[in-house]
């Protein structure tokens, strides 16, 4: 009979003690290698610990409810054959489940321990191939080239830049600026300057938006050429762990690689029965094309993307109705930060239906009939167009991912560790394909980390916080721990809030509805979160993100001399409010 071997908890990432919520085997059970033994659950993820070899369980050393960490003994087992005796007893092979999006401050979900890499091919066409030329992909490709690697960048579409530059961040912000020009003119009517109703030339506006996109995407082509990064246009799919097949206009091309970074991005999704192919039912990409200004527009989804497009179309003349399944808009931010924004759009938009779902959409050549289910919504209504903005899914389903040796999680994402390495040692994944938050600025940093690791640098993704911004009017931005999150997690915090009605710069802009809120850890007085609503909130939030990264406390921020008069002073004054040193408002002494 084989000697008993110990099975211990493998490396489970950045966790000191994780609770066992389920034991999946019993003494006497015969278990195949990679079959799950126990299920662990932390505040961040659920993960299963697999058997490292074919075996028979002889003794369990843990119980449901126990907390375990790396190296703790799970069970004793006898190997099924002599070859298993030399197998390591702590190699994880499955990724944690990713049923829920990770909070912005979290590291990527821990990936399985990399499997031994197949020998890099001697006939490799490149050191690195990058799939996807969005902000994460092109940043990875360019950084790798700077480190001396031979790089091929594969992009499905003719223009580089991915969703962000072509049909996302950049074109939407161009249109949002146009909308803000209109909105600012309306706001100033009460202060002595009144403009006539703007005349909208959609063709010129569309051409200007496209020129902005063209300047950036054209610049990327130049940067690729300068770095000698070969760009291949076509649809990529794996044929084996070291080979991609790319369907180009000139036919199929096989690319042999030593390393790969998957940066394929994501695309909009719609609930079942929502026909996004109908011209009157749009996703966010369609909405940016500005084919017409619908008289009545329904926005399905009260998140950032939907509300940004609501801002654009309202300014251009559409009557806006927003429907949201949750009980509030922008659920990621604290309610008090969203409140000033909500107060303004309540006056602008025709309807905002919360706790309401769309039961059906029936489109014809002239409009869309919509059925609702909710307390305050009508049973039926008709709109000229409907924009569906309820989420995105990773573009992993068209890559023939199984041929690479990888498997997808239930949500279609790929698990990666803090070096962006997947379960296949020479393949890395970044950006939207590894899950929430699906933000371009996160992908850029991840792409650089992956390139540096491949290039032999000591690098890892350790972003303590990732800011979120809604470029609505007013803008809403948040970073780190929210006040609601702190309460739910039992964190002792101190909050400093400064209303922009007491800020000279906001008053001179005629926009005093803003608020800056900072959240501090009570014991250390270090800033751990912030929420800002108001003009240019997206720019202001960067200071707080840096302060959190640097471990600044309320005094560091308050004692930093900010220029006057500026909106940035509101950050310092919120810190002073928490510290009890604020003089621009009277607040009862707390310290």
From TrEMBL:
It comes from the Bacteria. The gene is lpdA. NCBIfam families: lipoamide_DH (TIGR01350). Residues 82-108 have a biased composition (Low complexity). It comes from Spiribacter salilacus. PANTHER family: DIHYDROLIPOYL DEHYDROGENASE, DISULFIDE OXIDOREDUCTASE. Its cofactor is (R)-lipoate; FAD. It is an enzyme of class 1 (oxidoreductase). It holds the Pfam family Pyr_redox_2. This is Dihydrolipoyl dehydrogenase. Binds 1 FAD per subunit. The keyword Flavoprotein applies. Keywords: Disulfide bond, FAD, Flavoprotein, Lipoyl, NAD, Oxidoreductase, Redox-active center. Residues 82-120 are annotated as: Disordered. Its EC number is 1.8.1.4. Signal peptide: none annotated.
């Amino acid at each position: 009979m084989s000697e008993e071997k110990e099975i211990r908890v493998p490396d489970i990432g950045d966790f000191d003690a994780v609770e066992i919520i389920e034991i999946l085997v019993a003494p006497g059970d015969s278990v195949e290698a990679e079959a799950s033994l126990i299920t662990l659950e932390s505040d961040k993820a659920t993960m299963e610990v697999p058997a490292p070899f074919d075996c028979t369980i002889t003794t369990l050393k843990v119980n449901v409810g126990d907390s375990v960490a790396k190296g703790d003994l799970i069970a004793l087992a006898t190997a099924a054959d002599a070859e298993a005796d030399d197998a390591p007893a702590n190699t994880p092979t499955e990724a944690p489940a990713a049923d829920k999006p990770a909070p912005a401050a979290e590291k990527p979900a821990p990936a399985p321990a990399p499997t031994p890499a197949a020998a890099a091919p001697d006939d490799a066409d490149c050191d690195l191939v990058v799939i996807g030329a969005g902000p994460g992909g092109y940043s990875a490709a360019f950084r790798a080239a700077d480190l001396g690697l031979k790089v091929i960048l594969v992009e499905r579409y003719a223009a580089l830049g991915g969703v962000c530059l072509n049909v996302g961040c950049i074109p939407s912000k161009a249109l949002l600026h146009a909308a803000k020009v209109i909105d600012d003119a309306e706001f100033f009517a009460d202060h002595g300057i009144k403009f006539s109703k703007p005349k909208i030339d959609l063709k010129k506006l569309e051409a200007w938006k496209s020129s902005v996109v063209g300047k950036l995407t054209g610049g990327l082509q130049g940067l690729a050429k300068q770095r000698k990064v070969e760009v291949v246009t076509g649809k990529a799919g794996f044929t084996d762990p070291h080979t991609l097949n790319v369907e180009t206009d000139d036919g199929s091309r096989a690319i042999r690689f030593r390393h790969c970074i998957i940066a394929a991005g994501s695309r909009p999704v719609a609930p079942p029965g929502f026909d996004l192919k109908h011209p009157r039912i749009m996703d966010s990409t369609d909405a940016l094309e500005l084919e017409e200004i619908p008289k009545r527009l329904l926005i399905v989804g009260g998140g950032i993307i939907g509300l940004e497009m609501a801002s654009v179309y309202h300014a251009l003349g559409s009557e806006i109705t927003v429907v949201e399944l949750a009980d509030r808009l922008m659920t990621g931010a604290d309610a008090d930060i969203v409140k000033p924004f909500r107060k303004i759009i309540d006056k602008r938009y025709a309807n905002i239906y919360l706790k309401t779902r769309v039961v059906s959409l029936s489109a014809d050549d002239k409009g869309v009939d919509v059925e609702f289910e909710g307390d305050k919504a009508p049973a039926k209504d008709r709109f000229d167009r409907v924009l569906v903005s309820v989420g995105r899914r990773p573009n992993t389903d068209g890559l023939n991912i199984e041929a690479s040796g990888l498997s997808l999680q239930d949500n279609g994402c790929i698990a990666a560790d803090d070096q962006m390495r997947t379960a296949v040692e020479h393949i890395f994944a970044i950006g939207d394909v590894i899950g929430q938050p699906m933000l371009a600025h996160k992908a850029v940093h991840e792409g650089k980390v992956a390139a540096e690791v491949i290039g032999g640098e000591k690098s890892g993704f350790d972003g303590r916080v990732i800011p979120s911004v809604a470029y609505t009017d007013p803008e809403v931005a948040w970073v780190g721990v929210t006040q609601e999150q702190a309460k739910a997690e039992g964190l002792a915090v101190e909050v400093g809030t400064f209303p922009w009605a007491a800020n000279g710069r906001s008053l001179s802009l005629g926009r005093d509805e803003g608020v800056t809120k900072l959240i501090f850890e009570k014991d250390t007085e270090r800033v751990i979160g912030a929420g800002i609503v108001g003009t240019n909130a997206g720019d202001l939030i960067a200071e707080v993100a840096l302060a959190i990264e640097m471990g600044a406390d309320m005094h560091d921020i308050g004692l930093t001399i900010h220029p006057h008069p500026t909106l940035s002073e509101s950050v310092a004054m919120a810190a002073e409010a928490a510290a009890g040193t604020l003089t621009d408002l009277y607040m009862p002494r707390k310290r």
